[in-house]
Amino acid sequence: MGVDLGSRAGSNGHSFDTVFAPVGSARTFAEMPIEQKNELSPRRHAVDALRAHLGLTGS
Q1: In terms of CB atoms within 10 Å, which end of the chain has fewer, N or C?
Q2: For residue 34, is it left (φ>0), alpha (ψ between -120 and 50) or beta?
Q3: If 0-12 CB within 10 Å is exposed, 13-18 middle and 19+ buried, where does residue 32 land?
Q4: pLDDT digit string (tens) for 4-24?
Q5: Per the confidence metrics, is the pTM higher than 0.85?
Q6: Are 30 and 17 in contact (CB under 8 A)?
Q7: b/e map of 7-20 (b: 16 or more CB within 10 Å)?
């Protein structure tokens, strides 16, 4: 989950990435490298779980 910082910052993302930051962070999702965003992303966790369930590995 995240919080709305009220102003736009960063360029690594789209849509709401520029205004939302993870709870406890002063950096927006758009200011983070993709690797850090993936560590926090519920969608990424769901895709990883699905891939493991299907026996898929790699990128």
Answers
A1: C
A2: alpha
A3: buried
A4: 777 788 777 777 787 888 888
A5: no
A6: yes
A7: eeeeeebeeebbbb
